[in-house]
Design brief:
177 residues; mainly beta; five-stranded mixed sheet; 1 helix; 51% strand; globular
Length: 177
């Protein structure tokens, strides 16, 4: 026969009631929407470089801030150019942080890393972000094989759902006469 003392039982009921209240209030984290608040050519400086084996170059730059040089969707195809988006995820959460997926979909055919012989159709990174505050991510052409003309798509996803999307067209530079 199972014996439960009253104190233990009442503690379980209180914990259950508090958990239910938090869920009903949306404290577990409710995401309402996301918006792109800035996009184009940037000049962000990496505060830190971290290894990420599934990244195109095997690493990610962690940026401290957002520095938009030019608001545009037309990106010149030149080495070292950096472009990206600044976005805000709106909602409510007790923790004020959520995990989103920052996705870059490469042009048709993807990027082929000649060192690894691996074809990348997209780059997807899970990031802890602050809700209701600006967040950003970008891409820099560090090697010539990354410089693929065409449509590049930046997406912010939450639990598999696309919250916001921005398209860029990487174009060959026009001859300057």
């Amino acid at each position: 026969m199972l014996a439960i003392n009253n104190k233990s039982l009442s503690t379980h009921y209180v914990a259950l009631a508090i958990s239910t209240l938090f869920l009903m209030m949306g404290c577990s984290g409710q995401v309402d929407r996301a918006e792109i608040v800035g996009y184009g050519i940037t000049d962000n400086i990496s505060a830190e470089i971290v290894k990420r084996q599934d990244a195109v170059l095997g690493k990610d730059g962690i940026y401290d801030g957002w520095n938009l040089l030019e608001k545009t969707t037309q990106i010149p195809n030149v080495e070292n150019i950096q472009f990206g988006v600044e976005y805000v995820v709106h909602g409510s959460s007790m923790s004020k942080t959520i995990t989103v997926e920052e996705v870059i979909i490469f042009p048709s055919g993807g990027l082929i890393n000649p060192v690894l012989g691996k074809n990348y159709l997209s780059d997807e990174s899970k990031m802890k972000i602050h809700m209701n505050k600006p967040n950003s991510f970008c891409y820099r052409f560090e090697t010539s094989w990354e410089q693929i003309p065409g449509i590049w798509v930046f997406q912010i996803k939450y639990k598999g759902k696309i919250l916001a999307e921005q398209k860029f067209e990487v174009v060959e530079e026009r001859d300057k006469k």
